[in-house]
Structures are given as structure tokens and as C-alpha cells.
Amino acid sequence: MCCAGAFMAFLDTTIVNVAFPDIERSFHASAGLSALSWVVNGYNVVIAAFLVPAGRVADRIGRRRAFVAGLLLFAIASEACAEANSVGVLIALRLVQAAGAAILVPTSLALLLPHFPPSRRLSAVALWGAASALAAGIGPSLGGVLVDAWSWRAVFLVNVPIGVIAAWAGWRLLSEERESGLLPDLAGSALLAAALGLLALGIVKGQQWDWTSAATLACLIGSVALFVLVAARCARHPEPILDLRLLGSPGAAVGNLGTLLLSVALYATILNNILFLTGVWRWSVLTAGLAISPAALATALVARPAGRLAERFGGRVVIIPGTVLYGLGLLLLSWGAGQTPSFLTGWLPGSAIAGIGMGLALPNLIGSAVASAPESRLATASGVNAAMRQIGGVLGVALLISTLAAHSANALAGHRSGWYLAAGFAVTAGCASLLLRSEQTSAPSEAV
């Protein structure tokens, strides 16, 4: 049940990507690609900014109460998203949906952990992470089935019965837990959301506005200024949105940095793949979603044995080869995916290699970030790492949209540049992982 909450929240980070073409057709000219990007990025921005504070508020008011409230808010917002009659309304409702998700992610883990003894806490994180990984992995294929059978509105409606049933079961079966203490820095959360929003806006619109225009520079400079304010508040606030103490160890710092960089690559790749398959190869959303599934399957199959290798030999042994394989897979996609559709020779090899690389690298980066945290701060450490993933998602989507806009006259060249972009971030994550010590390993080996 706790994992169901995480499943729903992370499912909606990827399931909407496959619905982009259908949403654009539904709203016609009012739904350009830069506008549609906010259907994904607005969701990611709110989760990234409010995930940790939502968890701390839940600690104060009661985790079960917050979990149920998050489920109901998510379900109601999902129903409203399905009824949206314009892109603006859809984006606004996605922000509300993300608020529910921001509550679900930390409370689902916090409610799960007490059911495990301290020696098995990291296994609990792995179980929770596996649910979120499964959700992100099957999102495109499930979205393809729903859009093909009904319409894009079905990708939101699927959340409603799951949310209502989970809320009812949670209220009846879960015990209430709360802690005393101060409320988190909600003002800092608002500043982080504004900083991420301005950064994404500047990147997405930079090509259209011109990179040296006053509007673009205002967004980028304003974003940097707000990030500085957020860092200052985190350093002095008693309950900061990002606990800098959890970034003090080399494992946590490198693990979170690597997670952010690799998430940029992952989210850019997922959206780039969908837009390429439906736009250049003209495949249906169902076919496109199914074509992406082998990579997710490869990730899931590799994650557990990769974790065992990391436990025995150290995280670097699997993380660095994983990032290299991911980058190689994307290069194979960029070289093999031409104008003529070819799944077996042009798509499958690169996609499968990228999936294997992600299964090697991302779970162990997450483990490096979380495993060094004290047991009393394990849920918070997981929340910080999840926020890094969402920030990476914001940047990945924004950078991809900007890249595609720069190649609007040649769609194939734009998608190839998108794969090059993602490969570069993956290799950079591998370079950062060189700073991990050999004994810093990953326990939550299933958490993709």
C-alpha cells in the first residue's frame, strides 16, 4: 500500500510523455512543444521543491493523515486533469497533482520503514525504490496502451480508482505516527520552485527569445540569484528544505550529484525517444510505448545483480561502466535511427544497451547517496535524493526542448542532438563517480 503511493507519484513522471502527440492534436495550435513541456516540468518542479518539506510537515501532523490526504488530492487532481479543456488549465492542474505526489513520496517511505528492523532498513528502501522504478519504467508503455485505446485523458483517469482504494485501505490499516519539532522552511521551498521554474523557462524559451535577450538573461540570472538565496536559507534554517548535513559525506555528495546528472540524461532520453518514434518514424503511441519497454526491462533485470556486485567490489565498479554503456547506447540510437523505421537493427540494440547501463548506474548512485545517512535520517536522505532526481528531470526536459527548437528545420538532426546531449550528461555522471571511494557501495540495488 505504501509502495502504491510511490508507484502513482513516479508513474506520472513518465506516463504523460507518450500522450504529448495526442494532447497537441486535442488542443491544436495552442499546444506547442514548449508549452506542453510544462505539463511534465511543472509537475517535476513542484515535487522537487516540496518533497522534503511535505515529508517534514507529515511528521508533525501525522504521517497516515498526510498520506491519505495526498492520495485523495492526487486522485481528485487526476480526475480534473482528465477534464481539462486547455493547455493552461491542464498545466495548472498538474501543479495540484504534483502537490499530492510531493506528499505521497516521503510519507509512503516513512510509513514503510517502521515495519522493518534497523538491519533491514536499506532493504525497505530497495522495496520502495523498486516500486518507483517499475512505475517510471512502465509509464510510456502503459500510457501508449491507454492513449491508443481511449485518449490522453485516460492516462490521468487511471490514477483515480487506485488513489481512492489506497486511501481507504491506508486509513483503515496504517497506524498513525508523528514527531514533535519545528515546521520546515516552506518559504525556502517556494524560492526553490521559483528558481527551478525560471531556469526551465529560460532554457526552453532561449532559442525563441534569443539567448542574449533581456527576457532570457533575466530568467537565468534571476534563477541563479534565487538558488543562492535557497542555499543561504538551507545553511541557517533549523529545518531546511535540503539538509546540507546529509551532503557532508563524500558518498552522499557524489551520489546525489551523480543522480542529478544521470536523471538529466534519463528524462531527456525518455521524452526524446517518444517524440522521435511518433514524429519521425510516425509510429502510433502504442507502438512507441512498447518500443521503449525493452530498455526498462533491461534496467530492471540488471539492477539487482549490479547491486550485489557493488556490495562486494564497491559502487564505482558498476556505476562508471553503467554510465559509459548508457552513453554508448544513446550513440548507437543516434547512428542507427534514421528516417526509415527499423526496430531490430536501428532501435533495439542501442535501446537495450542504454537500459543495461541505467540498471548498473542509477540504483547504485542512489545507494551511495542514501546508505551513508544515519538510520534516523534515512527517510530524509531518500527524500533529498528523490528531489535531485526531479531537479534532473526539470533540466533534462528543458534542455531537450531547447535542443529540438534549435533544429526545428531538421527533426532528425534535433533528435540526434538530444541523444548526444543525454550521452554527455551520462558520461559526466560517470566522471563524478570517480570521486567515490571503493568501499562506498550501494545497498538499495533495486531502486532505479
Describe this structure in words.
The protein has 16 helices and no strands. The protein has 448 residues and is an all-alpha fold. The chain has one domain (2-433): MFS general substrate transporter like domains (Growth Hormone, Chain: A). The chain is globular and about 60 Å long.
CATH level 1 class label: Mainly Alpha
Low-confidence stretches: 440-448
**SS summary, helix count:** 16
Number of domains: 1
Largest β-sheet summary? none
CATH superfamily: MFS general substrate transporter like domains
Q: What structural keywords apply?
A:
448 residues; mainly alpha; 16 helices; disordered C terminus; globular; Growth Hormone, Chain: A
List the helices and strands and how they pair.
Layout: H1 2-11, H2 20-27, H3 33-61, H4 63-82, H5 87-112, H6 121-149, H7 154-157, H8 159-173, H9 186-209, H10 214-236, H11 250-279, H12 285-313, H13 316-336, H14 343-371, H15 378-406, H16 411-433
Helix pairs in contact: 1-5, 1-6, 1-8, 3-4, 3-5, 3-9, 3-15, 4-5, 4-8, 5-15, 6-12, 9-10, 9-15, 11-12, 11-14, 11-15, 11-16, 12-13, 12-14, 13-14, 13-16, 14-15, 15-16
